[in-house]
Each structure stands twice: as C-alpha cells, then as structure tokens.
C-alpha cells in the first residue's frame, strides 16, 4: 500500500466545517484517496471551550482500476433487463452464460442495443435495476 500523508490543515478545515454545520461526520475524496472526519457525540457534558475537539480520522485508498469481472455500459441510456414488459429477464443471478449471450438491453435514442457477455461465465451480481438510466462505463453485471 502506498504511503498516504495526511494534510493536517485539511483535517482542521474539515473539523471546522463539522463545527460550523453541526454535522457529525464528513468525507472528502480526491485522486482515489478518501479522508473521513467524524465526531463522536458526547454522552456527558461538553468539554470546556479551550479543549480541542475529539476527531476520529479514517484514511482509505480506493482500489486501482475497474473490476475485471464487470460488464460495463457501452453507452448512455436506459437499461432493460427483459426483452418485453412482463417477459422474464434475460439472465438472473446464478445463471451460466455463454460468450455473446444477451445479458440486457440499453435503449439509446429509441434504439435497443443488446449488451452481450464478453466471455462465458456465471452471473454473480446484477448491479442495475430495470428501466433505470445508466452512464457510459457504469458497471452493470458481475460475471464470474
């Protein structure tokens, strides 16, 4: 894991933002790194005004790159999990699929575009709901 230097000025700024807004936690992400600053609500009387606030800091790094098992949206559009309203879904979790098999449809500009399995495998998860908008590159299905 790469070394992650915490910027004390940023932590102070986020802590002040907690004070100013009355929030109990705030999270800030930049370049795949995340800092979460949280204040534990006191069960006893608040400390004197001169005492430093109690702040928990959690630092985490995001995984590098996309999930290699994910089938992603090749375009922006609306996803359909079945060929027609009321018809069974193309696939469901646990189904074995063959390379080239249709997994779902994406409607873009009144055209229905099939999203096909890039390889044979098993449907581990379906990450989108029927009739919801998707963005280019959004993960749709996890194929094991």
What is the element layout, followed by pairings?
Layout (H helix, E strand, L loop, with lengths): L7 H14 L3 E6 L2 E6 L17 E6 L8 E3 L4 E4 L15 E2 L4 E7 L2 E6 L4 E6 L5 E3 L4 E5 L1
Antiparallel strand pairs: 1-2, 2-3, 4-11, 5-7, 5-10, 6-9, 7-8, 9-11
Account of the protein in words:
The protein has one helix at residues 8-21, and strands at residues 25-30, 33-38, 56-61, 70-72, 77-80, 96-97, 102-108, 111-116, 121-126, 132-134, 139-143. With 144 residues, the chain is mainly β. It folds into two domains: 8-61; 70-143, RNA polymerase II/Efflux pump adaptor protein, barrel-sandwich hybrid domain (OB fold (Dihydrolipoamide Acetyltransferase, E2P), Beta Barrel), CATH 2.40.50. The chain has a four-stranded antiparallel β-sheet with strand order 4-11-9-6, with no helix packed on it. A four-stranded antiparallel β-sheet has the order 8-7-5-10, with no helix packed on it. The radius of gyration is 23 Å and the shape is elongated.
Sketch the topology as an H/E string, one letter per element.
HEEEEEEEEEEE
Strand order of the largest sheet: 4-11-9-6
Mean pLDDT: 80
Weakly predicted, low-confidence segments: none
Domain count, please report it: 2
């Amino acid at each position: 894991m790469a070394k992650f230097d915490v910027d004390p000025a940023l932590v102070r700024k986020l802590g002040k933002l907690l004070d100013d807004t009355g929030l109990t936690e705030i999270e800030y992400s930049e370049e795949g790194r995340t800092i979460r600053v949280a204040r534990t609500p006191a069960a006893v009387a608040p400390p004197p005004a001169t005492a430093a606030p109690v702040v928990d800091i959690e630092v985490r790094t995001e995984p590098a790159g996309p999930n290699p098992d994910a089938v992603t949206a090749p375009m922006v559009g609306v996803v359909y999990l079945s060929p027609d309203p009321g018809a069974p879904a193309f696939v469901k979790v646990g189904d074995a699929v063959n390379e080239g098999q249709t997994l779902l449809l994406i409607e873009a500009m009144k055209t229905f575009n099939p999203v096909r399995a890039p390889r044979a495998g098993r449907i581990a998860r379906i990450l989108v709901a029927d009739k919801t908008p998707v963005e280019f590159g959004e993960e749709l299905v996890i194929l094991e």
